Amino acid sequence: MAFKDIIGHTEVIENLLKRIKENRLHHAMMFYGRLGIGKRTLAKEFIKAINCKDFDNEPCEKCNNCKWINENKHPDVIIITNGIRAESLDIRLVQNKGSANGEPDAAEETSSSPKKEITIDQIRYLEEIIYTSPVEAKYRVIFIIDAETFNKNSANAFLKTLEEPPGNTIIVMTTSFLGMVPVTIRSRTEKIRLKPLSDADMKRLLSEKISYSSEYTDIVLHLLKGGLNRKILSTDDESLKEYLDMAADFVNSGKITVEEILEAANTLTRSNDRAERELRIYIFFTILKELLTDIHLGRAADIWGKYISQNTTADFSDIEHLDETIRFIRNAQNLYCNQGIIIKSELLRLSEQWNRL
Ligand SMILES: [Zn+2]
């Protein structure tokens, strides 16, 4: 990867290059913007650029700094993120295995399952190592991925480092949810916004990532909204058609039968794998919400064409009901209960609220 290979974000890149040249770097930078638009990739290029031994508008990709950063193995680039994210990116996190007396910290979960939050334990360990000199890099970098996953304790513990980092330390953060980053942290960073990608850039990116048949390209682009949503991208033509037909049954005028509703619920929950089930539910409800919103705004015909009948209408309360259903299902996913029953009852309730039964 090089700056020139990054799709979109040209203004941000030009600005970063200019500042690297002029040596005007803020000690804490927050790259933010919607999911899947390349924040982490860009941040990583930036970290390489400020440390590369032979930087000439692009990192050289050959020096130790470039190589180690590419492999997420640079001793001077400390990556902090939550356990789940680290697992999905295959990153080994720096953290204590236990507290000073060798016992696991009682305040933290001691199970080996990955955590959804950046823990205080990680920050304490970070503080132990950042006051040593960098081994190879010009700048010691603290690279925080998904900064919205700081919890209250880890955010408080990190404040001191954020306010007064050791010399030559640069803190680089990324988040898709700037509003959820603790305000104490957010307010102490320079914020760099990455804009959603244009349709042309998205098409370029998609041509490298997936191969939808052109029949679905416009709908997929519409659902992605200028960001690479991996969940949406993981679906294929066949399931996409299935979701679209089902969503159309729910919104098109005329009545829906109880059998159709139960069949839809079965389709969504038929996998034994929880992640797969949640993915199906997520994609279906994302499509349903988007479709309904477009019908309400009177712009559905352009995008959804053959899936909706001409006299289909929706009003704002229909969307509110759908939002309630989505929230309820999402909360219920964290409980140990039969997901199939929940989906069935929620789809029935929704159809009744929509006056479709
Ligand atoms: Zn280099």
Poorly predicted regions are 98-110
Q: Largest beta sheet, briefly?
A: 5 strands, parallel
Shape assignment: elongated
Count up the helices.
Answer: 16
What fraction strand?
5-15%
Task: Return the CATH class of the largest domain.
Answer: Alpha Beta
Order of helices and strands: HEHHEHHEHEHEHHHHHHHHH
Range of helix content:
40-55%
Describe what you observe in this structure.
With 357 residues, this protein is of the alpha/beta class. It has two domains: 3-193, Rossmann fold, CATH 3.40.50; 235-353, no CATH class. It contains 16 helices and five strands. It has a five-stranded parallel β-sheet, sandwiched between helices. Helix 6 links the parallel strand 3 (140-145) and strand 4. The chain binds zinc ion (ZN). Residues 52-54, 59-60, 62-63, 65-66 line the site of zinc ion (ZN).
